[in-house]
Amino acid sequence: MKFLLISSNKDLASKNIANHIKEYFDVFETDKELLALTDADLKKADYYIFLSKHRSMANKPSLTVHTPGNLTENNDFGGNPKEICPCDAVLNTLLLKNIYKNYKSYYGNSKIKEFDVSFEVVHHSPTDLKAPTVFVEIGSSEKEWVLKEAGEIIAKSVLETIDAIKTKNYEKKIRAIGFGGGHYAPKFTKLALEDKYYFGYLVPKYASVSEEVLNQLINKMEVDKALIDWKGCRGEDRRKYIEFFEKEGIEWERV
């Protein structure tokens, strides 16, 4: 079972995290931007974990987890339109839970206590990788990207998650795809941190996905159930998604 951890020398947060990992685990370092990478740039692996910065207009300090891909025709941030990377719900959720646990252990530290820990929805490149892929990110400005404590939290969480998956040291839970809500998926983040589900792909309200993409969501991840944030999803999209799930024999639930 091979994990490839990927760091860019052009990314301050990426270098920060990598510096805390390299003593214990090999890191694939590149001079390219992470979002410019494709399958051809990387060594073959069973799992890809990108160590990355997160940028937002609000500049809110954050620690985030998400699988990359383009849910629609929009590929403004690289990759191919309507293409998503494979996803492992266990990997994504263990990363989120370990980040939250390790973040809480730093909570008395004034430098770190204002951070949000959350999933993000599927977005940006790369899109063409052939194995489960996830980004772990420090946001949202240079001040946070270089913060030693943030790098330590992500690094420790990545190493703990790899160990848990390699040793199969995790409980069995329903592996879910989430539909609806905002970019930081607050409802699905909460359910994951409450140990209710393992979440993989998360599709926001603002992305109305086609059947082509829906097929990728169920074929590039082991899916037990689809959860719909009922109030956070447009009626026309709910109907389309439910019709698709029922046609494919996939259980769904409103939350």
Protein architecture, described:
By secondary structure, this protein is α/β, with parallel strands linked by helices. It has a single domain, classed as 3-Layer(aba) Sandwich (Aminopeptidase). The chain is 32% helix and 23% strand. It is built from seven helices and twelve strands. Strands 2-1-3-8-4-7 form a six-stranded mixed beta sheet. The longest helix is centred in the middle third of the chain and has 19 residues. The model has no long low-confidence stretch (mean pLDDT 96). One of its GO terms (biological process) is D-amino acid catabolic process. InterPro entries: Deacylase_DtdA_archaea, DtdA. It is an enzyme of class 3 (hydrolase). Its cofactor is Zn(2+).
Annotation keywords:
4-stranded parallel β-sheet, 255 residues, Aminopeptidase, alpha/beta, 6-stranded mixed β-sheet, globular
The gyration radius over C-alpha positions equals 17 Å
CATH topology: Aminopeptidase
The tally of strands reads 12
Tally of separate domains: 1
Low-confidence stretches: none
Strand order, biggest sheet?
2-1-3-8-4-7
The CATH architecture can be given as 3-Layer(aba) Sandwich
Q: Helical percent range?
A: 25-40%
- Which structural class should the secondary elements be placed in? alpha/beta
Which descriptor suits the 3D outline?
globular
* Main sheet summary: 6 strands, mixed
Q: What's the CATH superfamily, by name?
A: AF0625-like
The succession of helices and strands, N to C, reads: EHEEEEEHEEHHEHEHEHE
CA(first)-CA(last) distance: 35 Å
- Identify the CATH class: Alpha Beta
Number of helices: 7
What amount of the residues lies in strands? 15-25%
Return the average pLDDT rounded to an integer: 96
